[in-house]
From TrEMBL:
Alphabetized UniProt keyword annotations: Cell membrane, Ion transport, Membrane, Transmembrane, Transmembrane helix, Transport
GO cellular component: plasma membrane
Membrane topology: Multi-pass membrane protein
Protein name: Molybdate-anion transporter
Residues passing through the membrane, by range: 6-23, 44-66, 78-96, 108-130, 136-154, 175-193, 199-220, 287-309, 321-339, 345-363, 375-395, 401-422
Any matching Pfam family: MFS_5
GO BP annotations listed: monoatomic ion transport
Lineage: Eukaryota, Fungi, Fungi incertae sedis, Mucoromycota, Glomeromycotina
Family annotation (SUPFAM superfamilies): MFS general substrate transporter
Organism whose genome encodes this protein: Gigaspora rosea
UniProt-annotated location(s): Cell membrane
Length: 452
């Protein structure tokens, strides 16, 4: 098949987009506020830690199913382990997120490294019940990974006086770099398994988490929800639920997050068996899963580049970007019901991964703009409750993979409908950005005059 050629083509397309969008991006940044070297250092520091923890997460992905299988577990036992992780994230994530707002995001970023390192160590055990404990810890860690790091960064971003317009740029770079990290992690995990056995990627992941913890301790300062010190965890949860109930913008963000990410996690379980079902059994070669995975990661990078161009130089509104992303994603996952061709399925699955690259910086920017500082991590984890419940329900239900794929497409179409209620960039925020830009220019002029 043409998997290798498609991978090369995707890399070439990604390189072309980088150079094509570069000049337009410079113009856009110059029209916005100049955050200076302080912002560049801050962004670099955050991204380094973010890439370290994501590397530890990605290292486990290719072999977590394989290591369970090597212990002799049946498919239904492996499914129980996976579902336990999702349920753990849904049940404990809300409490953890609220506690992070109250007691400090830096502390809970460090707690993440401890819990996930413990989960990686526990997975080396072949005892089913001990592994269940590891999956519970892994589920809690996943909630922390996708809430407290972002909450810390957004809070610190604004507390240092950086402009809101540069948040999209930070999220876009994080998504783009995450694609590179995923490719590196997949290749590194493969190299480790070939030389040191199937457990080696999990031990290597601990090294990445420990390194991230050390950098966090040395370079990050603590931040909290603005009123969190005066409230308990239960009050934080009630406040967050009240905000979701009464603010249609926040409710829309939560709806599209739960629907899209539930479909995405289910897709992770679907794409391999769907491609295998169309693979020519007369062909003695197996599917090149490593090449397919790498192609998906490059597609995510392409999506992040497109988002940076659409939200920056082209100034497309958030609802417009979201609606286009969700309808394309929905179409790409309904086509397997009608197409019986392996390579065509791969192309449409790759298109779905491009929408992932568009989605992650979009949703991060929307959460930063719409959710108040004091309950940001709490609300972020509340959104993950329906997400994890949807995933667990569909994975344990007795339906075929094609029916699961149809359900994913349906969920994405509902997300498309919800996207019309997402918050738009208001004229007041644009005015404030211009004001900040003027102040920055005045400060720069005064500093230059003093130096002269």
């Amino acid at each position: 098949m043409l998997y290798k050629e498609t991978f090369i083509l995707l890399i070439v397309l990604c390189a072309i987009l980088i150079f094509w969008f570069r000049d337009a991006k410079k113009v856009s940044i110059n029209l916005q506020t100049d955050n200076g070297k302080g912002y560049n250092y801050f962004r670099f520091n955050y991204l380094i830690i973010y890439f370290l923890v994501m590397a530890g997460d990605w290292l486990q992905g290719p072999y977590i199913y394989a290591i369970y299988k090597s212990y002799g577990f049946e498919l239904n036992e492996i499914a129980i382990l996976f579902v336990t992780g999702f349920l753990s994230s849904g049940i404990f994530g809300t409490i953890i997120g609220s506690a992070a707002d109250k007691f400090g995001r830096k502390k809970f970023c460090l707690l993440f490294t401890l819990l996930y390192s413990s989960a990686c160590f526990i997975i080396l055990s072949s005892n089913f019940y001990i592994l269940l404990i590891g999956r519970i810890l892994g589920g809690i860690s996943t909630s922390l990974l996708f809430s407290v790091f972002e909450a810390w960064m957004v809070s610190e971003h604004f507390s240092r006086g950086f402009s809101s317009s540069s948040l999209s740029n930070t999220f876009s770079k994080a998504t783009f770099g995450n694609g590179l990290v995923a490719i590196f992690s997949g290749l590194f995990a493969n190299w480790l398994v070939e030389r040191h056995g199937i457990s080696s990627p999990f031990l290597a992941a601990i090294g990445f988490f420990v390194t991230a913890a050390m950098v966090i301790i040395l370079t990050w300062k603590e931040n909290y929800g603005s009123d969190s010190k005066n409230t308990n965890t239960f009050q934080n949860l009630l406040q967050a639920l009240n905000v979701i109930k009464n603010d249609s913008r926040v409710l829309a963000i939560g709806a599209v997050q739960s629907l899209y990410e539930a479909s995405m996690y289910i897709f992770v379980f679907l794409w391999a068996p769907l491609l295998e079902s169309q693979h020519d059994i007369s062909n003695e070669s197996n599917l090149p899963f490593g090449m397919i995975f790498a192609s998906f990661m490059v597609a995510i990078m392409i999506g992040s580049l497109l988002y940076g161009h659409l939200s920056g130089p082209m100034n497309i509104s958030f609802p417009d970007i979201a609606s286009g992303t969700f309808i394309i994603a929905s179409i790409s996952l309904i086509l397997p019901l009608f197409i019986e061709n392996e390579f065509s399925l791969f192309i449409f699955f790759t298109i779905f991964e491009v929408t992932c690259g568009l989605y992650f910086p979009l949703i991060g920017t929307l959460r930063a703009k719409a959710i108040s500082e004091d309950i940001r991590a709490t609300v972020g984890n509340l959104f993950r409750v329906p997400l994890n419940l949807i995933v667990a329900f569909i994975l344990i239900s007795d339906i075929s993979i094609l029916e699961q794929c149809l359900l994913c497409s349906f969920l994405l179409f509902i997300a498309f409908i919800w996207s019309f209620w997402l918050p738009m960039e208001s004229s007041s925020s644009k005015k404030s950005a211009k004001t900040v830009a003027k102040i920055a220019k005045i400060k720069k002029t005064l500093e230059k005059q003093r130096s002269d």
